[in-house]
Design a protein that fits this description.
The chain contains two helices and 28 strands. It is mainly beta and about 350 residues long. The protein has one domain: Pectate Lyase C-like. It has a 28-stranded parallel beta sheet that branches. The radius of gyration is 22 Å and the shape is globular. It comes from Piromyces finnis. Keywords: Signal. This is Right handed beta helix domain-containing protein.
Amino acid sequence: MIQINYFILILLLASVIILKKCSAIDVYIPNEKYDIANINDLIQHYSLLDKTIKIHITKNYIYSSDMIAQQIHIPENTNITLIGSSSLGTTFDFSNKRNNVNNFFLIFGDNEYFWQQFIIENITFKNFYTYSLQQSLFYISNYKINYKVIFKHCSFVNSDSLILIVDSQNSINKNQLDSHVLFDSCRFKKIKGNGVILLHGKKINNYGIKIIDSEFTSCNNIAKLYFGNIEFDYCKLTNISSSVNSAHFVEMLNDSSLMIKNTVIYNNNNNNNDSIELQKMIPFIRNNGNLMTFHNVTLRNIQNSLGYLINDIGQIRSNSSIYINNSYFESNYRVYNIINRNLY
């Protein structure tokens, strides 16, 4: 009988532990104390009560006058989810802050906790403009790399600024996560300034950005990598182009890699000002001897005045490779201008 009682007690304690791990605090803003402008105070307060916090925004529309430039501090061992309105989602409109600095600076706690997450879900960011080449809507400064940032069902519309800059301060990565930043079912439209994603700073060999089930329409310079790996899976890119001296799609400068799977990239109107066509002497992809993989990829009607789409100058690695499998490239020009590369 005593053994049975002990067994029941152990089961009860285990249930309490599981429930505690699965619990979360749900906070709805705006309320009488917190709003988006003081979201850091909210996070710091509730992180003392629970390590999983879900912040629900009840407004459908938030203007820039209701926001300030945010340095969002994610405390140690704490997972934060910021969720847009359950009805139509929430739109952050930066129109009133045109050419002004008003971005989100993500800072993670100084710890070795793996899988710490900051999730943004069901939110549209629109009309983000700035004169500065160094500004972006989201900025992550990497002193620690044990985290994951997830954008889910988000839209980014009308911007002349980068959407994301990751500025590395650390040259060693012990984390084997498949991605540190994930864009899941997101939409990018008319991001026309300095590009969409920039990984800048010291190299981190295993740093990863993954983009799945997402669409890019009339955007410039999708990604520029000084380090790290980027993957596109089940994506559609239409009328991408270049507004700066960088590749239309992806430019890999140092120790990086590119994987594209189950993706369609096409230009549907050569006479459209938003089209890919003829950004003079700029390639579609510029590589520096890094690994590239294409699986089930379609490139259609993509042209430039260089006479080739992918330029690989091959200065970083002496034996890197390009793998192409089950893919279709439709172009009037050569696909590659490759120096010292292995093509499979």
